[in-house]
Design goal:
The chain has helices at residues 13-26, 37-45, 97-111, 126-134, 150-157, and strands at residues 3-7, 52-58, 61-73, 78-88, 117-119. The chain has 164 residues and is of the alpha+beta class. The protein has a 5-stranded mixed beta sheet with strand order 1-2-3-4-5, with helices on both faces. Strand 4, helix 3 (97-111) and strand 5 (117-119) form a beta-alpha-beta unit. The longest helix is centred in the middle third of the chain and has 15 residues, at 97-111. It is globular, with a radius of gyration of 17 Å.
Amino acid sequence: MDLRLRQVEPDDVGTLFSLIQALAEYEKLATSVTGNVEALQEHLFGSHPYVEAIIAEYAGETAGFALFFPNYSTFLTQPGMYLEDLFVLPKYRRKGIGQEILGYLANLAVERGYGRLEWSVLDWNKDAIAFYEQMGAEVLQDWRICRVTGELLSQLSTKRRNKP
């Protein structure tokens, strides 16, 4: 396989953002992308990096990416890795790239002493669910993601009784 996985470098951020936009199109969420290349650059390589990413190159062409960051399990009392996004462009699917990306991240998690690798998947994405289960992942049926963003996040922040 002519596959190369590598850490994202500063010159890759525009390409990475394009892949994020392609992922959003695939997930029918294109209008949800409100960020920009500059913010992504800062969050990857600024004074306080929040995320890491890898690029998958197949036969010298950009084929996909994964973006991830550390989290923590109170039950395991260990750090873990949260995979925010894994995406392979449609023309590169079924070539083992997704499997290699997950293996790469699992290896990185083990090297770092993390207790788990976890991510979310859209319930309608049956192909992804089947792929993840084939890779050995347990799709947790009883858990739902809770999210507060934008104006609702601001409103929630004002509901505190004891403000500093």
